[in-house]
């Protein structure tokens, strides 16, 4: 329960007023419930004509205690009603009063449940927003170690389980302790001897219930992990449908998914079995408690050794039976909470993930690029075992284009990913106008940079919103101008809704060249002083490449550009070409200078020419 209360402390602070109202309304409900049951005693006595005692009114301050005075005066008024109106009419009045008290009880019960709904939905909304916000702030390195399907499962299934298991149990945890305390107080006032006997028997039954729920959290963790595997399998399938169909691997993927689903089903069955055991077990133990107390109290009454009369004993048994339901609900919460805590533990792996890309307390202002970008003797490793980059030094003066070439895995993409601080260097430094990028605000740094990648990342939205992405208050005229510069305006206007046409998931309704030109238009509209081109034309056919290359050349005018290229023909006019090999710059210079060196660049050029 310690974990549960820590969780409540984290998320319930904005909803304290709902908790106060829930406690108050549940307290009223319990009071009305007890008073309605109290009416059973005079009703039974009237029905069976068991009480022939003559009652006289006692002053409320009379000696003997408030309980005795209140009971005496209540029976006095009942006997007066019987004398005046007869037993049948008095029974009707008592019945109507019982119905009225029950209406008050159920109204308070409904209100207490209704007031908890905004709390439940609010907490779950807050957790989901916190997870999404955390995902947005985490560095890219975190996601290289996590599966997307697993993250989706934690945001959907696990957060949903927190709502179903923990926040729904919160209502039971407020209501049932109040009912249990109120009922036991009534039992104690009615007969402390019977209540003492009940409390001796009860702990053994509570222990029996506790043993069933001990393994529930571990089993719930296993079940949620299997759910993550299933979601990851689905996400991979949707992302790779083209390859699956091309290699006729549908049956293989169905078999994999069936295996995942069966494992999830088996894990869920174990959890569900333990949960299903809670109700019948609590029902049986509750009945056992009633039987034991009924035998003990009945024996006392039959032996004329009891301190209470038969109608009062029946009232005692009704209250005792009423305790069983909140005890069952309490035990049900004890079963549900471990499931929710297991899910919250998985959610916390995201919420408590360490973000190593940090800003200093007082970052320096970064208004633009005035002189140069400098990579100063940098080294970088993803796993601290093997360096991806070693002792790389490179200066990119303002207004120039520097190209990076080399075989796959030589460190080109890693080098440009270090500039916007997607990762931080372990050795050396990267500076803009002589200021370390670690000393400036990350949003200012990334605001200077425009990206056009090999895989054009677009969103399931309209042309307009994709081009205007990240640019506040962009007008249609600005978007159209950017699209014209990127050679995208004509094919956009061929669509029925023009710039308001939806382009599908990841731009699936467009060709590769069209997607790339939308990506370029987006970079043009942002108008960044520093541009990163990551193999922007390598995946295109010759005709599309020509259109995209024209758009890129317009984009690169007057901008500082770092371009990664496999096709050397696209960067032969660069101001400087750096050749990377196994994480080091082995050659640098202009196109003709590198060819004349007859080295690694010449070999790459000759292979492409061939």
Question: What does this protein look like?
Answer:
The chain is of the alpha/beta class. Helix content is about 65%, strand content about 10%. A 6-stranded mixed beta sheet has the order 6-7-8-3-9-10, with helices on both faces. Helix 7 (about 150-190) packs antiparallel against helix 8 (about 190-215), helix 7 (about 150-190) runs antiparallel to helix 9 (about 215-240) and helix 8 (about 190-215) packs antiparallel against helix 11. The longest helix is centred in the middle third of the chain and has 53 residues, at about 250-300. The model has no long low-confidence stretch (mean pLDDT about 80).
Question: Main traits of this protein?
Answer:
610 residues, alpha/beta, 6-stranded mixed sheet, 21 helices, elongated
Q: What structural class should be given to the helix and strand makeup? A: alpha/beta
Number of strands: 10
Strand adjacency order, main sheet = 6-7-8-3-9-10
* Shape field: elongated
Radius of gyration: 37 Å
How far is the first residue's CA from the last residue's CA? 71 Å
- What is the number of helices? 21
Question: Approximately how much beta-strand content do the residues carry?
Answer: 5-15%
User: Main beta sheet: strand number and arrangement?
Assistant: 6 strands, mixed
The pLDDT mean sits at: 80
Low-confidence stretches: none
- Proportion of residues in helical segments: 55-70%
């Amino acid at each position: 329960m310690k974990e549960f209360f820590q969780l409540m402390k984290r998320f319930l602070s904005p909803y304290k007023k709902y908790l106060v109202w829930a406690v108050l309304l549940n307290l009223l409900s319990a009071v009305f419930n007890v008073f309605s049951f109290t009416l059973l005693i005079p009703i039974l006595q009237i029905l069976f004509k068991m009480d022939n005692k003559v009652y006289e009114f006692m002053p409320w301050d009379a000696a003997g205690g408030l309980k005795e005075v209140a009971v005496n005066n209540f029976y006095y008024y009942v006997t007066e009603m019987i004398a005046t109106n007869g037993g049948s009419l008095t029974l009707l009045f008592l019945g109507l009063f019982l119905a009225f008290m029950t209406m008050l009880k159920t109204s308070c019960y409904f209100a207490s449940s209704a007031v908890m709904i905004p709390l439940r939905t609010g907490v779950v909304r807050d957790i989901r927003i916190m997870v999404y916000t955390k995902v947005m702030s985490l560095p890219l390195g975190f996601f290289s170690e996590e599966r997307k399907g697993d993250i989706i499962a934690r945001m959907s299934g696990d957060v949903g389980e927190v709502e179903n298991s923990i926040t729904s149990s919160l209502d039971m945890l407020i209501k049932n302790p109040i009912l249990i305390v109120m009922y036991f107080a009534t039992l104690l006032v009615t007969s402390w001897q019977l209540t003492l006997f009940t409390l001796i028997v009860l702990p053994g039954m509570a222990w029996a219930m506790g043993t069933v729920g001990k393994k529930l959290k571990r089993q719930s963790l296993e079940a949620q992990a299997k759910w993550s595997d299933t979601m990851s399998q689905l996400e991979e399938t949707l992302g790779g449908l083209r390859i699956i169909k091309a290699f006729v691997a549908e049956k293989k993927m169905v078999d994999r998914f069936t295996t995942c689903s069966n494992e999830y089903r088996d894990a869920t069955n174990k959890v569900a079995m333990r949960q299903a055991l809670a109700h019948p077990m609590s029902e049986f133990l509750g009945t056992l408690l009633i039987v034991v107390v009924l035998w003990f109290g009945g024996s006392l009454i039959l032996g004329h050794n009891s301190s209470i009369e038969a109608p009062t004993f029946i009232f005692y048994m009704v209250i005792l039976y009423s305790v069983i339901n909140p005890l069952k609900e309490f035990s049900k919460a004890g079963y549900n909470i471990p499931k929710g805590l297991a899910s919250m533990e998985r959610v916390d792996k995201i919420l408590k993930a360490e973000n190593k890309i940090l800003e200093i307390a007082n970052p320096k202002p970064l208004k633009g690029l005035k002189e140069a970008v400098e990579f100063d003797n940098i080294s970088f490793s993803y796993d601290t075992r093997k360096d991806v980059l070693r002792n790389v030094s490179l200066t990119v003066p303002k207004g120039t284009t520097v190209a990076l070439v080399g075989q796959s895995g030589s460190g080109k993409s890693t080098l440009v990913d270090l500039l916007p601080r997607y990762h931080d260097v372990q050795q050396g430094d990267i500076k803009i106008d002589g200021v370390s990028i670690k000393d400036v605000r990350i949003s200012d740094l990334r605001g200077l940079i425009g990206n056009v990648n090999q895989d054009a990342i677009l969103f399931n939205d309209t042309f307009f919103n994709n081009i205007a992405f990240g640019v506040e208050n962009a007008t249609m005229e600005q978007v159209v101008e950017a699209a014209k510069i990127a050679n995208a305006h004509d094919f956009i206007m061929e669509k029925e809704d023009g710039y308001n046409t939806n382009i599908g998931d990841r731009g699936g309704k467009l060709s590769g060249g069209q997607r790339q030109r939308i990506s370029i238009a987006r970079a043009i509209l942002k108008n960044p002083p520093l541009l990163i081109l990551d193999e922007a034309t390598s995946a295109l056919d010759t005709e599309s490449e020509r259109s995209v290359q024209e758009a890129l050349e317009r984009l690169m005018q007057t901008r500082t550009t770092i371009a990664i290229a496999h096709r050397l023909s696209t960067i032969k006019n660069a101001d400087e070409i750096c050749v990377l090999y196994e994480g080091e710059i082995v050659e640098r210079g202009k196109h003709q200078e590198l060819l004349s060196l007859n080295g690694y660049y010449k070999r790459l050029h000759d292979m492409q020419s061939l």
